[in-house]
Amino acid sequence: MAIKVKTGWGKIFLAKEMFYRLGSRAGVNMTTKRQFLDKLNRLPCYMVTGQPLRQDHVILYCNASRVKAALKSMENCGSTIIGIAIHSNDLPPPASPETFGHKLMAIEELAEFPNAKIVCFAGAKPKAIVVSSMRIRLAEAGIVDIINYHSPVCEQQRYMKFPETYLNENIKSLIAVYDSLNDLSSKLSYLWFLKARLTGDLGYIQRTPGSKTYHHPKAPVLPGDCLIDAGVSGNIASTLDFAKRVTGCGRIFSFEPEINCYNQAKSKLESLKLPQVCLLNVGLWSSKTEMLISNKGHGSSLVVGEKEGGNIAPLMPLDDFVLENKIDRVDVLKFDIEGAEMDALYGSRRTITKFLPKMIISLYHLPDDIFAVPLFIKSLGLGYKLYITKETWGRFDLILYAAPPKSIRKKLFSLIRLSKNQSLVFLLITPVVKKLANEANFQRFKENPAAFFQSLKSRKYRIFGRIFFPPPHA
Fold first, then answer.
1. Which residue has the higher pLDDT, 126 or 144?
2. Which CATH number goes with the domain that contains 321?
3. Alpha carbon of 370 to those of 34, 122, 171, 204: distances in Å?
């Protein structure tokens, strides 16, 4: 029985995902290789890229400057065009959109043609922000069944494609990451990004609905947070956003090793007078060293190793920076450092273990990052929950959010690290966490921790209470 799948989050895929999830609860532990490949193969492509597109009853939707190219591309492959809708009149004044003999429609009129195919033409080299704004505007008008089209195949696609052997060589790691993700939206975003990079086809890129850059409800940046912002770049947009969220009572340590980006950021921050932001011309790495840094890449800075054409920048582990500056807490780590994320994580292990910060980490710079970074965080054994969002329709901006354990467990982990008798505490920690999960018990614990533990029947709870919450001396 065939089921029609509309544009969006496919119903068949959702149903299969729920089936696999229920199966795992029934005792099937891991997604099998066959199931994982089946999920990848069934993903629909939402943008026709560089292929002849023949459709009847087409309404073109594009910017005014793209009308001529869009008409030529569609008519060359035999499509029947019944009208044109303009997304934005980006022609220089006093020019106006040319319809070339076709009816010019308002976006509100498109819903009156239910049998027409709405084709979004973003150009030969579509920018993610253009595709995103076109989709959002159509969705606001109640139109979601659309075809995205750009032609021909551009350098951007060839640049993003993984090697042919990538999937077979890394299949076990990719499945392990898929199984470790904590919600369906993350799993879908992960699969769509992987499919796009395996095929080199931007048509598989899907933006996570409702996502915002460096925002996630499970790992929010809150007022008063102490944030490590690695990878600032010259435009400082994310730094300004973080500064608003942590407010004046928070603190941001921003790291930018590339000297030109650092100077641009410094100039802008000084003019804005943000006392909560401390900018440093240092990069984060796994050890103390120096390295040649260049800003010739797509991001703010790119590590190029022992080559010419950059500036020598000092690099250091985050653990050393926290220790040397006597920082007493770290609430959020944000790493967007052009392929150096894994090295920065290795240099942050002590900080992560001690403070259990929320983490925001880019996964798109190196091919191995999409499985190496999540698996490294899981290997720490700290109980982090992992979420992934795709924040644009381009080939970049796949972001991992790592949410630490709940606050009670986080406090108990902190107590464990301060304890001299850790072996005993590890035996007791699990039942104590379960006990404090009860709201009434937690209220009693907050009012008088020592009395709470001594009132419990179990001897191991009373021992735990004496270790961490000794009763006051008479």
1. 144
2. 3.40.50.150
3. 20, 28, 12, 17
* % of the chain at pLDDT higher than 70: 66
Using only the alpha carbons of the chain, give its radius of gyration. 26
Tell me which residue of 410, 9, 383 sits closest to 188, measured CA to CA: 9
Q: Which of 5-9, 105-109, 333-337, 350-354 has the lowest mean pLDDT?
A: 5-9
- The DSSP secondary-structure symbol of 181 reads B
> How far apart, in whole angstroms, are the C-alpha atoms of residue 186 and residue 178?
9
Element (H, E) at 229: strand 226-230
In a domain, 219, yes or no: no
Cis peptide preceding 152, ω within 30 of 0:
yes
The three-state secondary structure class of 83 is strand
Name residue, tokens 């920690």.
Answer: 429
Coil/strand/helix, residue 191: helix
For residue 423, what are the contacts with CB-CB under 8 A and spacing of at least 6? none
Contacts of 264 (CB under 8 A, 6+ apart): 234, 235, 236
Does 386 lie in the same domain as 285?
Answer: yes
Residue 117 located in a structural domain: yes
Report the domain count for the chain.
Answer: 4
Distance from C-alpha of 149 to C-alpha of 133, rounded to nearest angstrom: 15
Residue 43's domain comprises: 11-47+158-204
What is the per-residue pLDDT across 424-434, written as a single tens digit (0 to 9) for each? 444 454 455 55
24, 30, 35, 39 alpha-carbon torsion, rounded to 10°: 80
Residues 376, 303 share a domain: yes
Are the CB atoms for 279 and 305 separated by under 8 Å? Answer: no
| Assigned domain for 214 exists | no
* Complete DSSP assignment for 100-166: TTS-EE-GGGGGG-TTSEEEEE--SS--HHHHHHHHHHHHHTT---EEEEE-S--HHHHHHPPPTTH
User: Measured between alpha carbons, how far is 468 from 419 in angstroms, rounded to an integer?
Assistant: 8
- Specify whether 353 is located in the same domain as 391: yes
Residue with tokens 């018990």: 441
Same domain, 378 and 252: yes
Q: Does 235 have pLDDT greater than 70?
A: yes
| 400 token code pair | 């991992």
Q: Which of 85-89, 135-139, 180-184, 394-398 has the highest mean pLDDT?
A: 180-184
pLDDT at 300: 44
Q: What is the pLDDT of residues 152-205, one digit of tens each?
A: 444 444 446 888 899 999 999 999 999 999 988 899 889 988 988 888 776 677
If asked whether residues 338 and 391 sit together in one domain, one would say: yes
| In contact, 122 and 148? CB cutoff 8 Å | yes
CA 319 vs CA 165, 360, 402, 459: distances in Å: 36, 17, 19, 38
